[in-house]
C-alpha cells in the first residue's frame, strides 16, 4: 500500500512528529553502537527557534528540524533568528522518501561543535498565507536559507560528527 503524495501536507503534524522520532532513533542507535549516549530534550513550542536540545561528547546543540520530500521542489527553509541566540544552534534538513518516512539524506547548516550558528543572511521570510488583500507579510524574526547553503550528507555517522565531533 502506498501513501498518497498529498499526505505529506494533509497530515503534516503527524509527519513532523514521526520524522522527529525517526531522526532520534537513527541518531541514538548510531551513538549506542559507539558506546555513547545522546541526551535529548524536546521543545514543546517553536517559540525559541529549535525543536530539540541534544548533548553528546560534552557538546550541547539546539537543533531546528526541517523536512521535505526527496527530489521535491522545496528550495528553501525559514529559520528563526532566535536559533542564532543559542550557543551552538544548527538546522538539520531531512530529505525524505516520497512513499515512506525514510530519511534519504541530511542537509546540514551549522558551525563546528561548540561554535555559533553561521550567519543566516538578510533575506526575511514571509507568511505562507496572505492577509485579506492577499499580501504575504514579512516575518521579521525569520530568515530564508536556500538549499545551496546546506551541506548535504548521506549518513547518520556524518551527521553525528557534524553535531558532536569525532568520538
Description:
This protein is α+β, with helices and mostly antiparallel strands and 167 residues long. The protein contains 3 helices and 9 strands, in the order H-H-E-E-E-E-E-E-E-E-E-H. Strands 1-2-3-5-6-9 form a 6-stranded mixed beta sheet, covered by helices on one side. Strand 5 (89-96) and strand 6 form a beta hairpin. Helix 2 (12-33) packs across helix 3 (156-164). The N and C termini lie far apart (41 Å).
Taken as a percent bin, the fraction of beta residues is: 25-35%
**Element order: H for helix, E for strand:** HHEEEEEEEEEH
* Helix amount: 10-25%
- Largest beta-sheet characterization: 6 strands, mixed
Low-confidence stretches: none
The chain-level structural class is: alpha+beta
Main β-sheet, spatial strand arrangement: 1-2-3-5-6-9
**Total number of β-strand segments?**
9
Indicate the mean pLDDT.
Answer: 90
Estimate the global geometry from the Cα principal axes: globular
Radius of gyration: 16 Å
Number of helices: 3
Q: N- to C-terminal separation?
A: 41 Å
Question: TL;DR?
Answer:
The protein is of the alpha+beta class.
Amino acid at each position: 500500500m502506498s501513501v498518497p503524495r498529498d499526505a505529506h501536507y494533509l497530515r503534516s503534524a503527524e509527519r513532523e512528529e514521526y520524522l522527529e522520532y525517526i531522526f532520534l532513533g537513527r541518531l541514538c542507535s548510531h551513538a549506542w553502537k559507539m558506546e555513547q549516549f545522546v541526551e535529548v530534550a524536546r521543545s514543546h513550542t517553536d517559540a525559541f527557534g529549535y525543536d530539540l536540545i541534544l548533548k553528546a561528547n560534552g557538546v550541547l546543540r539546539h537543533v531546528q528540524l526541517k523536512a521535505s520530500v526527496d527530489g521535491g521542489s522545496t528550495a528553501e527553509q525559514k529559520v528563526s533568528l532566535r536559533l542564532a541566540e543559542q550557543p551552538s544552534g544548527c538546522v538539520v534538513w531531512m530529505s525524505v522518501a516520497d512513499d515512506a518516512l525514510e530519511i534519504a539524506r541530511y542537509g546540514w547548516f551549522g558551525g563546528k561543535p561548540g561554535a555559533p550558528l553561521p550567519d543566516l543572511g538578510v533575506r526575511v521570510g514571509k507568511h505562507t498565507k496572505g492577509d485579506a488583500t492577499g499580501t504575504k507579510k514579512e516575518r521579521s524574526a525569520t530568515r530564508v536559507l536556500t538549499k545551496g547553503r546546506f551541506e548535504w550528507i548521506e549518513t547518520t555517522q556524518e551527521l553525528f560528527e557534524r553535531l558532536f565531533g569525532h568520538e
